[in-house]
Specification:
By secondary structure, the chain is mainly alpha-helical. The protein folds into 2 domains: about 5-70, Arc Repressor Mutant, subunit A (Orthogonal Bundle); about 90-124. It is built from 6 helices and 3 strands. It has helices at about 10, 20-30, 55-65, 80-90, 95-105, 110-124; strands at about 5, 35, 45-50. It has a 3-stranded antiparallel β-sheet. Strand 2 (about 35) and strand 3 form a beta hairpin. The longest helix has 16 residues, at about 110-124. One of its GO terms (molecular function) is DNA binding. This is Cro/Cl family transcriptional regulator. InterPro entries: DNA-bd_dom_put_sf (IPR009061), Mu-type_HTH (IPR003314), WH-like_DNA-bd_sf (IPR036388). It comes from Brenneria corticis.
Length: about 120
């Protein structure tokens, strides 16, 4: 498939996505889709990269474009990144801020080490 970027109106209702532009934008924020400003459009028009869309949406777009050879098996389980983003958005603003500050201060490896120590303490 040659087309890499899709406008919000091109994605509405595709592959189980919401049927409104507002719903598409909300889902994109929640899942962390890669976006860019649309060229030649005034206002807040954005496009989303096909690489960051859910697999079922990519498959629908590929089939729509006639690129059957590129069709891939749909994975039902969410990606790790999508899971992390979903969990992060479930936190309150203060919890999000505390988590980000901890990661910035201690680093991701320190956070993982601390989680492992907590798990070890609970099993003992």
């Amino acid at each position: 498939m040659d087309k890499e970027w899709f406008a919000t109106n091109e994605l509405t209702g595709v592959g189980g996505l919401p049927k409104t532009p507002q719903g598409i934008n909300k889902r994109a924020r929640e899942d962390g889709w890669e976006k860019r400003r649309r060229k030649g459009v005034q206002g807040r028009g954005v496009e989303y990269s096909i690489r960051s869309l859910p697999q079922e949406v990519r498959n629908s777009l590929l089939l729509k474009e006639g690129a059957v050879a590129e069709y891939q098996q749909i994975r039902q389980e969410p990606t790790l990144l999508a899971s992390w983003i979903h969990i992060f958005h479930q936190l309150s603003e203060s919890e999000q801020s505390r988590l980000i500050n901890f990661i910035l201060r201690e680093g991701a490896l320190a956070m993982l080490s601390r989680l492992e120590n907590t798990a070890d303490d609970q099993t003992a």
